[in-house]
Model the fold of this input.
Amino acid sequence: MPKLGVLTGGGDSPGLNAVIRAIAKTAFQQHYEVIGFLDGYSGLVEERYMILNARAISGLLHRGGTILGTNNRDNPFHYPVEEDGKIVYRDMSDQALLTLDRLGIKALITIGGDGTLAGAAELAAKGARIIGVPKTIDNDLLATDQTFGFDTAVTTATEALDRLHTTAESHHRVMVLELMGRYAGWIALQSGLAGGADVILIPEIPWRIEKVAAKILERKTQGKPFSIVVVAEGVKTPEGNHVLRDWVEGSVEKARLGGIGQVVGRLIEEHTGIETRVTILGHIQRGGSPTPFDRVLATRFGVMAAQLAIRGIYNVVVRLQGADVSYVPLEEVVRGTRKVPPDGQLVQAARAIGISFGD
Ligand code: F6P
Done:
């Protein structure tokens, strides 16, 4: 029986299991076997895998996370190994290719963000046959109009804003909600719009505390002594620095952002005199059941990826363009980050209804 391999890499994103399920179901129809490598690239390097048979993929559509496991550190070209009690980094890409050869895998479907897909492009350059599936809650990949997981993250963030609204109003407070998204403001912008934020701070638009405070005080004079402020984690401090919560050695993207919400909250209190509370939503945005939109997009990506693998079209990444799923060369995804256009329609619509970006 011909075989396809699949792995999930990088931070998890609601809909990963739906992609795995769609790949396997499409492959079974063509009498293919599907092997799932465990824990991202480490399963490929260390030859750890599970057979994704009909039983293994049952009940996956609505399940968050990934049954294969993932990690956002391991890269086969810079792989952590223990030598003399110390962790050193070695190029283990030959080992990864050997695993594919030994198991007789026709093509490897790699579901991941820019780090994972950059690794996939390097493996492809060394001869691996790869189909990429773009994934991230951040929605910041150049190759695709939208990634699965983003809609779920926005839904979760919007629910949080709805809850913060009622308590903000009762206590006449400012509520700051810090959201994920790395260096792009998509989650903050979309959920800020959906959740009725008064101020949205995103990395793409430089902000000043005086402008933020003016908006909040203006609302107070209008008889609305509470405000909701959404801050994307990639926003810089007034001094021009990112706030880091962690530094992960060995990871493609070492900096882990987090904490700018506290900085913004403190400054708001100082400049307005209004009691301010800060919530950092964190990994809750990555968890839970995917929305129907994400289940459908994930399924379409999985079907297309399996069909390409079966047809022998390699080293491409599937993507959504407008309403259609198609594919582009793998290198396309590796070229940079898709940012919010500061004068795009979404920002314009937000400004038109009085939302401040602090500029
Ligand atoms: O890329 C997805 C993401 O959730 C980002 O929004 C966030 O900055 C990062 O991953 C968090 O990474 P970790 O799970 O390593 O803390």
User: Anything to note?
Assistant: The radius of gyration is 22 Å. Residues 11, 72, 113, 136-138, 180-182, 233, 256-257, 286 surround 6-O-phosphono-beta-D-fructofuranose (CB under 6 Å).
